[in-house]
Amino acid sequence: MRQIWIMKNGLILPCEKATISVMDYGFLYGDSVYEVMKSVEGKLFAAELHLQRLRYSAEKLGLPVPWEDGKIKAELNELANQIAVPWVYLRLVLTRGTGPFFFDPEHCEAPVRLVYGTEFIPFPPELYSRGVDLMISEFRKGPSRHDSGSVKTGNYMDHVLPRYRAQEKGFHEALMLNHAGAVTECTSANIFWFSRGELFTPDLSMGILNGVTRQLVLLAAERVGIRVQEGSFALEKLGDADEVFITSTTRDILPVRSIGEFRFRPGLDTERLMKQFLETGLG
Ligand code: PDD
C-alpha cells in the first residue's frame, strides 16, 4: 500500500501512529466535512475553490472553522512537501470532535483538523483515450437531507453503496438519476455532454455537488466560447449526445464510452475543452 501521512491539528504523523477518539462525532455520525484536493509540482490546485466549499459545507452543518485560509493552506503545503513527490493527493477532513453520547453538538470538544496526504497516481492514460463505462445505478438520488447535495460530509453512504455495486459489476462509475428519472451525477464525479457542439450538464438545483472541476470546466467553456446549458435533463437526452465526460479532482476531464445502451467516443470538443481546462486551473 502507498505510504499515507496524516497531519492532525498541525502535527505530522505516519498513518499508523495517528488516532481519533471513538467518541468523535465524525466517527459516530459522519458529522464531519471534507475536501479531496491535489498539489501539482509543489502548487495546490484550485485551493481557494476547495476552501470556499469546505466553509460552505461546514456552515450547513453548523461546524465551526476557526482557522484562516492561509493557515490551512500552509498546512496542506507542509504535508505535500513532506511527501516529496510531484503529484500529491490531499484530503482535508474536519470533524465535530469528541462529545457525549446522543446528539449534543453544544457539548462537543474542539473540532479535529486532519490532512491526509499520499502520492497522487493518475488514472491510466488508456482510460482517457478510450473512455470509461458508467453503470446506471438503481439507487436514486433523493432530495438531500441537508438542504443541498453540495454539502460534502463524512456521511457518504448514499454514494458509497452505488459505487460498490458499480465496481462489483466492472464499471468505472455509477450514474445516479433522481426520482423523476433526471440525470444528476456520479458517485464521485459530475457529468457533462456535448450535443451538436453545445455543452450540457445538470444544474445545481438537482442536488449535485458543486464540483471544483465542474466550476473550472464551466469557466473554460466560457473562455473558448462554448455555449452551455445547465438544467434538468432526462436520461434519454444522453441518447443525442456526441461526447460525454465526467469530472473530478482525481480525474480532471475523463471521457465516457458507454452509459447503459448508449455508446460514445472521446472527440474533438472534449479535447479542446481539456486543453483550456488545464490552463484555467493552473492560471
Ligand atoms: N469527489 N460529485 C460528487 C458526489 C463527488 O463526491 C465529487 C468529488 C465530485 C467532483 O468534485 P470535484 O471536482 O470538486 O472533485 C462530484 C471526491 C474527489 C471524492 O470524494 O473522492
In short:
This protein has seven helices and 15 strands. It has helices at 25-29, 47-61, 69-83, 125-130, 157-168, 212-223, 268-282, and strands spanning 5-8, 11-14, 32-40, 43-44, 87-95, 112-119, 132-136, 173-177, 183-186, 190-195, 198-202, 228-231, 243-248, 252-259, 262-263. The chain is of the alpha+beta class and 283 residues long.
Plain-language structure description:
- By secondary structure, the protein is an alpha+beta fold.
- The protein is 28% helix and 29% strand.
- The chain contains 7 helices and 15 strands.
- The chain has helices spanning 25-29, 47-61, 69-83, 125-130, 157-168, 212-223, 268-282; strands spanning 5-8, 11-14, 32-40, 43-44, 87-95, 112-119, 132-136, 173-177, 183-186, 190-195, 198-202, 228-231, 243-248, 252-259, 262-263.
- The strands form 2 sheets. Strands 7, 8, 9, 10, 11, 12, 13, 14 and 15 form a 9-stranded mixed beta sheet that branches.
- α6 (212-223) crosses α7.
- The chain is globular.
- The chain starts with a strand and ends with a helix.
- The mean pLDDT is 94.
- It binds N-(5'-phosphopyridoxyl)-D-alanine.
- N-(5'-phosphopyridoxyl)-D-alanine (PDD) binds at residues 36, 159, 185, 188-190, 209, 211-214, 247-250.
- N-(5'-phosphopyridoxyl)-D-alanine binds next to α6 and β13.
Distance between the termini: 33 Å
Q: Compounds present?
A: N-(5'-phosphopyridoxyl)-D-alanine
Task: Summarize model confidence as the mean pLDDT.
Answer: 94
Task: State the helical fraction.
Answer: 25-40%
> How many β-strand stretches?
15
- Poorly predicted residue ranges: none
Shape: globular
Based on CA atoms alone, the radius of gyration comes out at 19 Å
Strand-pairing-aware structural class? alpha+beta
**Strand percentage, roughly?**
25-35%
Number of helices: 7
Reading the helices and strands in chain order gives EEHEEHHEEHEHEEEEHEEEEH
